[in-house]
Protein 1
Amino acid sequence: SIEYKNRRLHQRRPPSPPGFPIIGNLHQIGELPHQSLWRLSKKYGPVMLLKLGKVPTVIVSTSETARQALKIHDLHCCSRPGLAGPRDLSYNYLDIAFSPYDDYWKELRKLAAQELFSTKQVHAIQPIKEEEVKKLIDSITESASLKTPINLNKTCLALTVSVICKAAFSVSFEGTVLNSDSFNKLVREALEMLGSFSASDFIPCFGRIIDWFTGLQGRREKSVRDLDAFYEQMIDLHKQENKQGSEDFVDLLLKLEKEEAVLGNDKLTRNHIKAILMNVLLAGIDTSAITMTWAMTELARNPRVMKKVQSEIRNHMGSRSTITLDDTDHFKYLKMVIKETWRLHPTTPILLPREVMSEFEINGYTIPVKTRLHVNVWAIGRDPDTWKDPEVFLPERFVDSDIDAKGQHFELLPFGGGRRICPAIYMGTTMVEFGLANMLHRFDWELPEGMKVEDIDIEEAPGLTVNKKNELLLVPVAVKYIDH
Ligand code: HEM
């Protein structure tokens, strides 16, 4: 109709970099998409439209445009696109993170928030954290007495792996179920498959052939099979009558299956449980570990900040060795250190992709239905209009500011925002605070022989979540005056 044509004529599309046929702008996205997109946004603005293969994709790169997308127009764009990796790993989108926005997702998310990620659950798993942190401290103490450097990337990961696995599955790797190396490989490969660049997501039909040729399809199928076997093993263990210990995530989910719980139009089945466990494994472990690794990296690069945060913790603790959840509430400077870490090193720098469900506008630009949308949180953290001297690691910038990381302040979005915000903010934050507080309380951290502060790099490894590329090696020195 004429009216429709008129409307189309008056619509403004966001600025776009020029692209090629078929691949569109794909060639402009490098190994670290958040960085390529940040550079492009300096030229094309805070709302830009890219063609990634066939798929129109909008990138927002400032706190104000993020606020428009995640707050004002959240309901227009809080679905998820169908992507090959997530589809296979989530038993056809039965999980929380990749399910489209529908009744099933709404009810599942509510249930998970109440049963799995609640404050009550966080307190219930505190003894697990304490036990695992104690083991960690013992092993660091051993390295300290030998004066050998430890690999912080590995150490932080080992801590979150053991806490999440105990809390979710009640397994520990000292037992016989699995060894930690093969488990780490399983999780690594699955994360890579989840975030893998799949040609079929961008180029219909032909892309599938590409994925088949490159072997991606085969690798993905293997990863799904291996994970499935792992879930089966965990579920079998829980079916045994004499299982020890308190109620874990698998117990809670099996109970719901038995009660024939209904979510949206779906009755909860074994595949639903597996998909939810996938989220816990892949969203819960890596993010907290990466945050701790980056925090230790920035502290090692900034000895003044390191000393100050250690003094805060040690002054509060005196000669007491065991840090409680209540203690961590007092560590105001530590909380600023963590926020500053998230500003410069958000674990999921462009969040997860959203899909537009109904047309809306950002800055007067029309965003049509089915457009994919990413918020470049990494770029927002480095925006000089928001942050003074953005490249400087300065936790003090949060002293007189009410900015927190819980999704209401669009300058700082490590957990995302809107309806799709991470449902486990409290669980993730307490994990990071508790792990760091203990490492900083009990040990001083020195550079390995011959290394200078300037030698510590902040190069990033590619992936859906972005870790420090090179290992961080530091020598722990046990603090004397604490009662052991
Ligand atoms: C420091 C720790 C963590 C960080 C920084 C983090 C960050 C994030 C981010 C950025 C998202 C995507 C939000 C979006 O697309 O807008 C997300 C989603 C999610 N996270 Fe976390 N997360 C953390 C810990 C956890 C933990 C411990 C769990 C579970 C045990 C978890 C479970 C989830 C789930 C299920 C989603 C999907 C939400 C949805 O799509 O509805 N996260 N997280």
Protein 2
Amino acid sequence: MISVAEAESIILNLVTPIKDTEIISLEDSLGRILAETVTSQLDFPYWDNSAMDGYAVKFEDVAQSTPESPTILEIIEEIPAGINPQKSLQSGQASRIFTGAMLPRGADTIIMQENTEKKDNQVVILSSPDSPQTFVRKQGEYYQAGSSLLSPGILINAPEIAVLATAQCSTIRVYRRPRVAILSTGDELVTPSQPLQPGQIVDSNQYALAAFVSRLGAIPIKLGIVPDDKNQLLEKMKEAINCADFVLSTGGVSVGDYDYIEQLLSELGGEILINGIAVTPGKPLTVVKFTNNDCVYFGIPGNPVSALVSCWRFVQPAIRKLSGLSADWYPKFIKAKSCQTLRSRGQRETYFWGQLQLVDNHYEFELAPGTQSSANLINLAGTNALAMLPVGTTNINSGEEVLVMFNVI
Ligand SMILES: Nc1nc2c(c(=O)[nH]1)N[C@H]1C(S)=C(S)[C@@H](COP(=O)(O)OP(=O)(O)OC[C@H]3O[C@@H](n4cnc5c(N)ncnc54)[C@H](O)[C@@H]3O)O[C@H]1N2
Ligand code: MOO
Ligand SMILES: [Mg+2]
């Protein structure tokens, strides 16, 4: 068996990022990966404008103002936001102005309303600003037209959408979404709506993995349940390999008489790169490459917790790289105080599921209550993190520090 670090590196080396792109609207861009450098022909701010409700003035007019010796200026214009000022300020004059409104020609300073008194068409300036340009947002201060605004390979979330909208990018070039085929294998499996006969079990993996794939911005292609029958499996596996960038099948990767996946992958011409990792849960994870069409096949263990932990630890970085993200592929770990004693045999990198919480300015890991068994998916709900004991560590006492992987979705 290979180590988790070796497996991670084999998997990431195997993955070629998607190159195909498509043009989509800004409205549809949430969760997509930008495929081009975005530049704008507009400066930002677009023009000099006011940061306060108040008066636009010439600094030299008001530089000596105090409550005892105020400056009185004539108000020549009112400039709400969205209006193009019509008048140029001369010495001794002010324009009434509001937050976000364009500065009139001749003005270089804003006096906030609280430091003034209005008398008919005059304003009394009661205090001096520190310097010219006070409360002026200068054109191009945040961004100059033509320079790079956003780089390819970034994930588009609310902040990026704000930037794209302000740059008037109504259409955007993004990488196409990865296609991930999902199939569940096992004679014992039924769908959540089928009545359960003795010995059967509901296929939870199909739904959990589809949700996981969607959360990563990829397209899940649910191919359903396939019985432990070599011919049917072979056909479904072929279909999966031909329709997707990645295949995630669950079950049939251990050593039982009905565990056919590895044998069938060889028959299909796949090159088996991983067939067992020193990790728990998830030991029998099998990773296979198909050279003829770039497809990567993940034979994921059937136990429901093993399936999700394998996805979080090994498939997630691979989908991130595949999707065109330029960085941020790897799982994220931080140190946290363990609220329970964690025990492992020390022979495999061991993952425990539970919740990471910020308590009084430090992170704590709360183990999911009940049995930590790879067949017990019942206590998975609420899981947002995995505590990890490396090979060689057999015990973390309650109150001691443990490494916690927190990008668990
Ligand atoms: N002699 C050995 N037996 C097992 C070993 C071993 O090293 N030697 N490893 C164990 C470990 S660890 C795991 S993990 C499992 C992996 O099993 P498979 O990937 O072959 O999966 P199955 O045998 O098909 O099923 C295992 C388990 O999971 C349930 N299951 C399967 N598919 C689903 C699904 N879609 N939704 C929900 N639950 C599912 C299935 O009913 C079994 O209970 O092997 C151990 N055995
Ligand atoms: O490794 Mo299995 O994945 O522990 O249950
Ligand atoms: Mg099995």
Protein 3
Amino acid sequence: MTAVGIDAIEIRTGKLRLDLPNTFAPVKGEDPGKYTKGIGIEYSSLPDVYEDIVTMGANAAKQLLDRKGLTPEDIGRIDVATESAFDNSKPVSTYIAGCLEQVYDGDFHHANKGERKFACLAGTQSIDDAYNWIRAGRNRGRAALVIATDTALYERGDPGEATQGAGAVAMLIDEDPDIVALSTEQGYGSADETDFLKPNQQFPSVDGKRSIKVYLARMREALEDYESVTGDTHPDDFVYFPFHTPYPGMVRKAALLGYRHITRGTEIEDALADDIGMQPREDDYPDREAYEDAIRAYMDELKETRRYQEWYERAIDPTVDISGQVGNWYTGSVHVARLSALSAAVENDVDLVGKRLLVGSYGSGAQAEIHSETVQDGWREAVEAVDVAPQLDARYDLDFDEYELIHDVHNHEKEADVEEFTAPEDEFVFTGWGRMNERRYEYIE
Ligand SMILES: CC(C)(COP(=O)([O-])OP(=O)([O-])OC[C@H]1O[C@@H](n2cnc3c(N)ncnc32)[C@H](O)[C@@H]1OP(=O)([O-])[O-])[C@@H](O)C(=O)NCCC(=O)NCCSC(=O)C[C@@](C)(O)CC(=O)[O-]
């Protein structure tokens, strides 16, 4: 069977950045350690005045099409995943296609376009849709463009303000992919939860502490479901474990729980037993509370073991590097985690061909999905071509007053007339509203 998967990736970060430990924390009266050690985000990417989910998505997509030498006729499907949409009817993919049609000969009139919603999970669901469309043989030899784009802003003063971010990830899903092949093995953990939601409002209502618990519970459920298909998972089965990364500290919690789960009943548990004992088994405890206390005590010790720390450094740390530099990109976040790991492998000259990734996606509300991917022959060249560092380094550093202004600019409830901080060049920009209140865009040379 021909492999189907991710053939190319491009990102587009918001062109501004907020330094959390040095600019945000002092004004909030917080210790910078909350950001450098706890949350793990150093900078939040934010959009300039002329940027939004459409410009970031279209700019990432254009970069991808140009690099691959593709024209609109090569694309049979454009799916946008977002939870920052500004239109309840017209999908963001039509705005993005309209942008792209300004600069290419030809058009996307015969491409199927849509918009996917399930909080941060929707990017992964869009990849699934593209995979199924190609596997079903309905693509007529064409590829699918999946764009995950979000402006992850919270109400000023909300604890979530510490985890903001803005950016887009464009991915080409095709046969014989250069980067990773997808598999049919998947696990889901899904439940009706009220932890993070936006009921007809721009900024989320969030119960932050609960959202952490729900993330962990649904991920665990998804892993168990995945293992019901594949059999037990072992830490050595996968080179990296890219998870949805609202902030690196969240992944730290998930990784520890995951490691305990996948080492249970293995030679690793036995090898650790001399130092920290065997993992608690529920049957050995009088009630659930006593069992959970024992688990917490075991995990406190597990996290300090060299074996765990070495695994974390190898398999998890590289996945959160970019996230720590950009914040939460919601639907793009797990795809940033994958790219982060692959970029680190390029930098450290690691050979990944044939190695597997275990990808854990998550969306509040809530659903987790876990699947594996196999790295393909062309991954190194394809990942080397993504200009992550130049984009991140070029961002404009906001002071706190400027941050307050730019937050107002992107607040749909406010009117703010603010000069742009950066000069647009060779990119799509937002130019204002049309007669039916549609947003309008132009390509600036
Ligand atoms: C994440 C929270 C709850 C944080 O809430 P908070 O109250 O701002 O922060 P905190 O006081 O809990 O501190 C954060 C961490 O920093 C540590 N810390 C504190 N000070 C220091 C210091 N000086 N030195 C070292 N460490 C320090 C502190 O101990 C803690 O670590 P933990 O105990 O959790 O391991 C908040 O920012 C929030 O509500 N964020 C939005 C919700 C969120 O991101 N939830 C994550 C799971 S849900 C999810 O991922 C879905 C999502 C959000 O992406 C949306 C979607 O799916 O659409």
